[in-house]
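Researcher: Here's the sequence for the chain we discussed earlier.
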Amino acid sequence: MNQSKSVTAGRSIKSGVWLALLAGWLLVVGCATRPQASAKPARIYIMTDLEGASGVYQFAQTRETGPLNDKAKEYLMGDIAAVVRGLRAGGATDIVILDGHGPGAFVPHLMEPGATYITGKPRSGPLTNFDGSFAGVVQLGAHAMMGTSDGVLCHTQSSKTENRYWYNGVESGELAQVAAVAGGYGVPTILVTGDEATCREAKKFFGPECVTVAVKRGISREAAELYPFDETRRALYEGAKRAVAAIPRCQPYKLSPPIQAKKEYLVLDDQGKPGRKITKEGTIEDVLKLLSF
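Model: Thanks. This is the structure I predict for it:
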């Protein structure tokens, strides 16, 4: 009789163990498959430019209409597609892309699904439809500031009048200008793509947590060591994925008003002759009007 009770008790213990293991397994599976309602949506804003795209290294590709320009735009769209796919794979929930190249550079039939695209003029502000709801900014196809010796197609705002800008005594290019406007909304720059000099400039202004992807290395203003498209597009995809994960560690780039500003540029009175250098100084009270100076 005692032996019978012992066998029965053993069976009960084994049954209990199996039930506990089954319950634990179901709990794990449930947690893994249950939608994470608490996950914060990651809205990403992409500012694009043409000079920093894969395969672009001549002003003839960016300033003038024609076959070289048409092909350069296709190169940019390929870079955009890789970044959009990477951002999506990294968890981005909403992606807005602005055509930041002066004459425009989007090719509508090459637009990667999973994002919306803003182009054309006139439009409001330097970052159209931008606000504090975005989790991060991507500067794609960017270039180094004017005067960068190894910066491919380097310039700040105008490559012809050779503008240069200083804010509170620090010379700044378009990277810092865009980031400062976004920083006015409390939004960090999380990814920068362009040449090696552009990536170096990004690290200087935004810190080590900002992800950078170099698609070429500058030799001079219109000479570069180009990296194969298969390699750059793969690097852009992986970099975009990492950038989403880096959002909590990236800090907004901020310029606190009043901002002491200085601008140098050339006035081109006679075509073919050197321009006259003009210097303008003043105070900017609102960082959102930084590019109006």
